[in-house]
């Protein structure tokens, strides 16, 4: 690699981000073509993918060396001190180059090789089939049909090839409407609610300016409301704040005039744009990163960032959608400006509230493929995959994941997946390790030949399915068919596990999820063993009418299952072997001293006492 | 005094709105000496709705036309609304409730009349924590003895009869020490940390005064503590006031230990909020939690403004400081503020919970509350006279005990497998501390409880809680004994508002309750399958 000048630096210190006493680990830093790797003296490895690096900063030289601060897109922040400035400079320059690639072909996904053959790779890509998904929703049907208008990406480059539209909307109407919509993104079906026969549709803003009209567009909206046999009116939801939408009118864009469209009810829901969201997250991260943060500064910072207010706005908009369909039986058309950010958030979240399928692991993958990937959320620009315009970067998808997390908190039994699943997806929208999130629309992805040159993320997540299952999930429960979250302000909390995922000292030291998961596993295993034993006993009884049950019987059932034996032995004293119980999230080991300091008072009180660190209960493994 | 004099109207027709998501209840309302009853009337079920009048914190009446509305705000933060037929009846009932809920006499309070089925008087009062705890200490070290110098409460009215003191100090010296400490609260042992051989002590402030008085016996006592622990051992005095405040206390006869007088001991100041400021913080938090309409920004700014979580952080980190001093530094720790009955107990009890695995069991925790709060003389009657809704100007009220429970809840959240009890026990303790049919939290000290014969004439909360039918509500199904110290994170990102308490009545509880039910189910299933698989392994064996 031409960018790498130094591949190995020894005696590098890794500072603890929250320690007020500058505690550090010493180790060796390695630079590879894809990763930055730090191995500390306990042989613990910290891997940082180059694509995850959001910024690298070289601070002023200190007596102990040259500080290098790396901020990652998955909210990891590492603070190294490199003894020699030259090395630091080399690494700094290399990382600057490596973290900002100019071409898609240089991204990790194109070199990542998980040792699969072509057919396995293809199978992976076929795991999620959107045609299948539309069938599941119940389209095509007498009201909705597949349109071939965009088969060659002629009408709209950022839409997928296959689009569902009302049966009565003819091709000229579609073409006419697309000319009246920003970027040609005309109204199409996003979700069809079979039982209510109502639809969630999506589009971009109309090019209405102050007075322009488009008959085809008016016809298309009418066709959508007519496709709903129960309710004649439909909602048009503009997800922007009213002021923004009005400002757009001056630029020849804007929003629908209720007078021109029959039977529409127009509604603003006031979600801010990508720039507001970007700076909101920036403010949030600044607050979080403060050392020795006080409770009051934390909450005033949280308030000033506005982050939770934005999350609530997205959630409220989704609830509006779900209510329109469930309570009023009305179809809804959603748009923002271009219809790929806020519209994706609201449509996908609305469908998630309405349809329990999207709350399963497979269903959630489908939802992301449909409303985000296929409808052209600009992942590469929003996540800054390539060295591009920093103003296009925005945490729109992160907000969606956070909304889903808030739902999982309110409805702990309604989701098949757990928090780790959401975090893992977030990890990979930035990792560029898999092809799914590369590019900005389907057309671009086809041109990149992603399906031939890269792998799909989803099968790899399914391989690790056990890690992502919610042990409390109850699929049968009728109460959870439609979620009705309460968006009272108390219900919105700071998502520590996202924004401090790598700051272990801040996390609970024991994980309820893990232990319930283990128990569930063991329950299943034990039940299976009981069945095995019962059938064996039956067999034996048949064979040797009242003969001797040999020792062999007992041992033959599960000679390999030593875990079961221990758990049986320990049954009397504890629920689980103690070691298991003390294991923490992310499998820490004894060498991993997660100290955090409460104060340095002791050292202040008496200079003779060396600075003190509070120990974290050492988790034995 | 007869209750009947205070009851103006015996009964009226009324409708009760118990909460935002619950169905209204209609029937005959009836005020008795201790309760408000609502009987749904003969045709429906005999389901009687009952409210202990003692738990009413504030009452608000409104009349319109020929009916009235009474809003009852309870000490457990519940808000109830009663729609009553008849203006006169409304006013009379309101006045009766007002008079009866603010009665101050202890011996006419409900615990003296409460005789539940299945419980015998005197049960579970067998807890004699200092004596019981001393047995444990005596097994671990010989440096301490149980002194009955306070047998008649003459030395210290707020201490129990028996206290644990250094073996080297005799009762006469203790009497001298008591005179030198506010309220007679001389340093006593509250926890012996066996692994490090160090101890945790608590006391009140020394009466240094403007003349900088000294007391040789007090100095001897603290010296004996260090020599008892280990030759050359160090000590830290954790003063829960700021250095400034401790100094100022000298003007009113108090103060803090002078460095020169106590060799080997060093002072640390960790100011903790107390008294009225703490009560106000509580009131403002509850106010904020009652407003379901407010915007996100308003909510966050009120959460910040009330400072409650800042108090949680301070309390936890001070407790960690004390615990760390013992475990990591091998130092003895003495904790005191001014009176030594509030923030002192907060720190010592939390430090024990962090260090001592036994105090994290259900029995151990009950003993801890009994020993470190009730017997240690936390004035429950004064502190918990009113909760967050009272319009009365707070005099002695302060939610110190609630702050303790909140800190325990935070520990439980960070170590979900290490506490044998769950949120249910903490909620129950909060409720009973403010209003209870049991006698456990009555009065301000052991001396007062003896005078009122609480022990023989009321039932103990512990026997009420330890009935098998209550267990499921109180237990943590996931508990696994953890022999280690549990060091919590005190970063603001790690602390959370205790929704189960502060939002208990404003949010629908079902989803999380159902989820816990599921956890219980998984755990019990585990025990069952474990059992039967076990018996399978055993049963064929005799046939060999």
Q: Can you tag this structure with a few keywords?
A:
heterodimer, A: 621 residues, alpha+beta, seven-stranded antiparallel β-sheet, five-stranded mixed β-sheet, 24 helices, globular, disordered C terminus, B: 544 residues, 14 strands
Question: How is this structure best described in words?
Answer:
The complex is a heterodimer of chains A (621) and B (544). Chain A is α+β, with helices and mostly antiparallel strands and 621 residues long. Chain A has 24 helices and 14 strands. Chain A has helices spanning 85-99, 118-126, 130-137, 171-179, 215-226, 242-250, 274-288, 295-305, 307-326, 342-354, 361-374, 379-382, 396-410, 419-431, 442-447, 450-453, 457-463, 465-468, 496-499, 512-543, 551-556, 562-570, 578-582, 601-605; strands spanning 8-15, 24-31, 35-40, 45-49, 53-58, 66-72, 77-82, 144-147, 163-166, 188-193, 198-203, 234-238, 264-268, 331-335. A seven-stranded antiparallel sheet of chain A has the order 4-3-2-1-7-6-5, covered by helices on one side. Chain B is of the alpha+beta class and 544 residues long. Chain B contains 19 helices and 14 strands. Chain B has helices at 87-101, 129-140, 171-180, 216-229, 243-248, 275-289, 296-306, 308-327, 343-355, 362-374, 380-383, 400-414, 423-434, 446-451, 454-457, 461-465, 468-474, 499-502, 510-538; strands at 11-17, 25-31, 35-39, 49-52, 56-64, 67-74, 79-85, 144-147, 163-166, 188-193, 198-202, 235-239, 265-269, 332-336. At the A-B interface, α8, α9, α20, α21 and α22 of A face β13, α7, α8 and α19 of B.
Brief synopsis:
The complex is a heterodimer of chains A (621) and B (544). Chain A has 24 helices and 14 strands. Chain A has 621 residues and is α+β, with helices and mostly antiparallel strands.
């Amino acid at each position: 690699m031409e960018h790498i000048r130094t591949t190995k630096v020894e005696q590098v210190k890794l500072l603890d981000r929250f320690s007020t006493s500058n505690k550090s680990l010493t180790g060796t830093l390695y630079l590879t073509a894809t990763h930055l790797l730090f191995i500390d003296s306990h042989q613990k490895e910290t891997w940082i993918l180059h694509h995850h690096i959001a910024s690298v900063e070289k601070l002023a030289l200190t007596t102990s060396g040259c500080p290098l601060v790396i901020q990652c897109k998955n909210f990891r922040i590492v603070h190294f001190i490199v003894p020699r400035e030259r090395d630091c400079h080399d690494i700094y320059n290399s990382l600057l180059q490596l973290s900002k690639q100019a071409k898609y072909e240089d991204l990790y996904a194109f070199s990542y090789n998980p040792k699969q053959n072509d057919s396995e790779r293809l199978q992976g890509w076929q795991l999620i089939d959107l045609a299948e998904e539309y069938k599941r929703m119940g389209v095509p049907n007498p009201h909705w049909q597949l349109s071939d208008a965009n088969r060659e990406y002629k009408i709209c480059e950022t839409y997928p090839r296959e689009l569902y539209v009302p049966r009565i909307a003819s091709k000229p109407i579609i073409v006419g409407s697309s000319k009246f919509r920003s970027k040609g993104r005309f109204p199409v079906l996003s979700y069809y609610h079979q039982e209510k026969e109502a639809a969630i549709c999506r589009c971009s803003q109309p090019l209405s300016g102050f007075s322009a009209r488009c008959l085809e567009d008016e016809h298309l909206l009418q066709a959508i409301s007519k496709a709903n046999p129960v309710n004649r009116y439909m909602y048009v939801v503009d997800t922007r704040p009213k002021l923004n939408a009005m400002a757009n009118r001056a630029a020849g864009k804007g929003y629908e005039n209720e007078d021109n469209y029959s039977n529409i009810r127009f509604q603003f829901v006031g979600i801010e744009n990508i720039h507001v969201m970007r700076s909101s997250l920036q403010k949030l991260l600044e607050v979080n990163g403060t050392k020795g943060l006080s409770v009051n500064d934390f909450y005033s910072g949280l308030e000033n960032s506005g982050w939770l207010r934005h999350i609530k706005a997205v959630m409220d908009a989704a609830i509006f959608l779900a209510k329109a369909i469930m309570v009023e039986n009305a179809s809804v058309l959603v748009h923002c400006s271009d219809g790929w950010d806020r519209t994706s958030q609201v449509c996908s979240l609305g469908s998630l509230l309405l349809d329990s399928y999207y709350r399963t692991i497979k269903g959630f993958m489908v939802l992301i493929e449909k409303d985000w990937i296929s409808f052209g959320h600009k992942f590469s620009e929003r996540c800054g995959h390539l060295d591009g315009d920093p103003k296009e970067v925005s945490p729109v998808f992160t907000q969606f994941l956070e909304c889903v997390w808030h739902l999982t908190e309110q409805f702990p039994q309604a989701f098949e997946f757990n928090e780790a699943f959401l975090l893992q997806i977030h990890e990979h929208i930035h990792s560029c390790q898999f092809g799914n999130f590369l590019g900005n629309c389907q057309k671009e992805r086809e041109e990149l030949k992603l399906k031939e040159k890269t792998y799909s993320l989803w099968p790899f997540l399914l391989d690790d399915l056990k890690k992502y299952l919610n042990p409390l999930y109850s699929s049968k429960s009728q109460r959870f068919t439609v979620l009705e979250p309460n968006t009272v302000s108390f219900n919105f909390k700071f998502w520590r596990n996202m924004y401090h995922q790598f700051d272990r000292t801040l996390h609970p030291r024991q994980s309820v999820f893990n232990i319930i998961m283990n128990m569930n596993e063991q329950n299943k295993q034990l039940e299976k063993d009981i069945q095995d034993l019962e059938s064996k006993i039956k067999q034996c009884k048949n064979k040797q009418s009242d003969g001797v049950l040999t020792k062999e019987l007992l041992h033959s059932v599960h000679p390999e299952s030593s875990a079961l034996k221990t758990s049986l032995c320990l049954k009397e004293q504890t629920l689980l072997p103690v070691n298991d119980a003390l294991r923490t999230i992310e499998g820490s080991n004894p060498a991993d001293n997660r100290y955090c300091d409460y104060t340095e008072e002791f050292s202040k009180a008496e200079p003779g006492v060396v600075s003190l660190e509070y120990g974290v209960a050492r988790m034995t493994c | 005094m007869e209750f009947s004099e205070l009851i103006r109207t015996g009964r009226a027709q009324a409708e009760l709105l118990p909460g935002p998501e619950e169905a209204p209840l209609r029937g005959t309302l009836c005020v008795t000496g201790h309760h408000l009853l609502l009987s749904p009337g003969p045709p429906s079920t005999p389901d009687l709705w009952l409210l202990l009048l003692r738990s009413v914190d504030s009452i608000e009446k409104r009349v319109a036309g020929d009916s009235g509305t009474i809003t009852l705000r309870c000490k457990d933060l519940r808000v109830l609304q009663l729609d009553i037929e008849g203006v006169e009846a409304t006013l009379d009932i309101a006045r009766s409730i007002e008079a009866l809920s603010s009665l101050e006499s202890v011996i006419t309070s409900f615990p003296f009349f409460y005789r539940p089925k299945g419980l015998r008087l005197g049960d579970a009062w067998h807890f004699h924590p200092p004596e019981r705890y001393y047995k444990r200490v005596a097994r671990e070290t010989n440096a301490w003895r149980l002194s009955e110098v306070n047998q008649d409460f003459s030395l210290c009215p707020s201490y129990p009869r028996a206290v644990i003191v250094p073996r080297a100090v005799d009762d006469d010296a203790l009497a001298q020490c008591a005179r030198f400490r506010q309220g007679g609260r001389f340093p006593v042992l509250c926890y012996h940390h066996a692994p490090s051989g160090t101890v945790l002590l608590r006391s009140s402030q020394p009466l240094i005064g403007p003349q900088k008085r000294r007391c040789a016996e007090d100095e001897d006592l603290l010296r004996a503590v260090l020599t008892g622990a280990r030759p050359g051992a160090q000590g830290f005095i954790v003063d829960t006031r700021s250095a400034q405040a401790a100094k100022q206390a000298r003007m009113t006869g108090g103060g803090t230990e002078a460095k020169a007088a106590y060799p080997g001991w060093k002072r640390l100041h960790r100011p903790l909020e107390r008294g009225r400021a703490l009560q106000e913080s509580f009131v403002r938090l509850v106010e904020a939690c009652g407003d379901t309409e407010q915007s996100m920004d308003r909510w966050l700014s009120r959460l910040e403004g009330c400072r409650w979580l800042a108090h949680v952080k301070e309390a936890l980190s001070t407790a960690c400081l004390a615990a760390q001093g013992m475990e990591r530094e091998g130092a003895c720790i003495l904790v005191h503020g001014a009176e030594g009955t509030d923030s002192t107990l907060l720190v010592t009890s939390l430090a024990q919970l962090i260090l001592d695995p036994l105090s994290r069991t259900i029995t151990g925790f009950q003993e801890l509350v009994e020993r470190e709060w009730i017997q240690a003389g936390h004035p429950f009657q004064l502190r918990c006279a009113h909760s967050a809704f009272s319009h009365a100007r707070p005099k002695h009220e302060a939610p110190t005990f609630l702050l303790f429970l909140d800190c325990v809840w935070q520990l439980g959240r960070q170590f979900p497998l290490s506490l044998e009890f769950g949120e249910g026990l903490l909620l129950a303790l909060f409720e009973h501390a403010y209003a209870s049919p049991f006698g456990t939290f009555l009065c301000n000290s052991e001396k007062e409880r003896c005078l009122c014969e609480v022990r023989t004439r009321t039932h103990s909360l512990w026997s009420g809680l330890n009935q098998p039918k209550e267990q499921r509500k109180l237990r943590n199904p996931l508990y696994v004994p953890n022999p280690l110290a549990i060091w919590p994170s005190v970063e603001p990102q790690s602390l959370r508002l205790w929704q189960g308490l502060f939002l208990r009545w404003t949010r629908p509880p079902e989803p999380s309750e159902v989820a816990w039910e599921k956890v219980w189910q998984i755990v019990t299933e585990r025990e069952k399958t474990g059992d039967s698989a076990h018996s399978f392994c055993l049963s064929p064996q005799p046939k060999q």
